[in-house]
Amino acid sequence: MAIELELYRNIRRLYNEGRSQRQIARILGCSRKTVKKYCRGEVLHDTRGIVAREEPPLYVAMEKEILAMLQENKTLPKKQRRTAKDIWLGLKQQGFQVGESTVRRYVRNLDKRHPEAFVPLDFEPGEAMQVDWGDMKAWIGGVSTGVSVFVTILPYSYALYASVFPDKTNACFWDGHVRAFEFYGGVAKRCIYDNLRNAVASGWGTTAVKQEEFGKLEAHYGFASDFCNPASGWEKGGVENAVAIIRRIAFTPMPKVADFIELQQHVDACCLNYIETHKIRYRSASIKELWTIERKTLNPLPLMPLETAKTVTALVNSNLTVLLEGTRYSVPLDFVGKEVTLKVSPFKVAVWHRGQEIYVHNKALHKGEHQYIPDHYLDLLTRKPRAVKNALPLKKGVMPPELKEFLSRCKAKDKEEQLLQVLLLARSVDPDRLLWALHQANQTSPTYQLVCFYLKITTPADEDAIAAQPSITVKQSDLAEYDSLMGGEAKRD
SS in 3 state form for 80-136? Predict the structure, then answer.
């Protein structure tokens, strides 16, 4: 038990004056046991005794089993690790009669009592680049959209960079590397990964077996790969923090952009601003200063960047399309029935035939967003005019907003046929001039004849010339002079 500070002070004072324990007890009115405990200064006045509490054998055994399961969790992939509920069910199977909430509390307390220990790491300039994926959200085209963010960091300087993609496919993984290397202006000697399935075919850590395609990337850019052990985030703690930093500086609040191109521009600006302005606490120099040093130590980029697009072959169907991952992409009429090659990158689908590029589509972000190009169907529609009214490429094809607005604002019953005639004009009229005429016609109720009228009477160049002409100033006459003249005539009369 503890005693008051004043009593402790008096015990120590009287003892130092040479009084016996019996005398001190009598003077201060306390027990000799208390005097004996505190007189030599072996125990402070507010020290309380710790009473050892023995856990019941049942709980000791249960704790041992829980610790064993938690330890085994560290060797399993994240999605296969036992939750507190799984541990509770396992204990029940072993005969432990215990409630789920009790097990949850034990798991929580054991996690606090046995935190993961780690070794602080230090990196040399140009030694390593750490890599990881992050999941974030942005408003793209007015729609809340999930975004896969490929995050990299150079742990010496803490220079970071992120690329945004619609998913985590291998093409995005390869392309993320190429973009990061180009941003940093060179390649680190080794790249450090979690056990990402984009890179690892099987195993983990030192036993990881690499994907064959990943080996091509590794060889072309001349870096070595290190794979972390399961549940060892500290081995790449820099990029773990970098994912949180990117989320804070570029995705909080959710950015509002028109497309992925604008989103990438936004993320690029945020990364550059972070590098230019930030300094890590306890470091002697800023990120910008350290990155300037590190860039000189990176291995040079290869003279030719690696082609990251996935290549597949497809047969052009009779509806002028090829099917890729549940989405149709149209091709010109001449290639129906022929086998073509598709080069699929994160945002583009290029169609090739015998070494010649036929057409490049924007890659659909969602399955079923078919990419029909109306120009591919014009010749077929002129031969099959009865199909014009219900032609899907005219109703839902990929076209400039001016053409879509023409179709929605035109009141004529044959508006699809009129749109077809406008599209045919594009083969003989400058595209910018046609879009200008469409814009003018769309100000009212547009028709094909009205578009032709605007094409005939003027051009955008004429409009620019008129707008550029200096304004004409009209000088107002002084009417008082006329009054004086008229007054003079009246006098003569």
Answer: HCCCHHHHHHHHHHCCCCCCHHHHHHHHHHHHHHCCCCCCCCCCCCCCEEEEEEEEE
